[in-house]
Amino acid sequence: MGTSRVSKTVAEKLEVIAWNETHGDGIPARALKHFRDERGWIMSGSQIRQWWKKREQVR
Length: 59
Hints:
Largest sheet: none
Helix content: 55-70%
Number of helices: 4
Strand content: under 5%
Structural class: mainly alpha
Order of helices and strands: HHHH
Radius of gyration: 11 Å
Distance between the termini: 34 Å
Number of strands: 0
Number of domains: 1
Shape: globular
Oligomer: single chain
């Protein structure tokens, strides 16, 4: 059986980082709630924390 993992594009990662800077006050858990609940994205909190931690490299 194949894996169900779908990686996010750099544009999507940048969208999460930008949202976290403007609306989330730099708290990754707020971005998780927004993108998971309101946008229907399938992602984990650890993904967002990783992107936030490495946001300068992602840009």
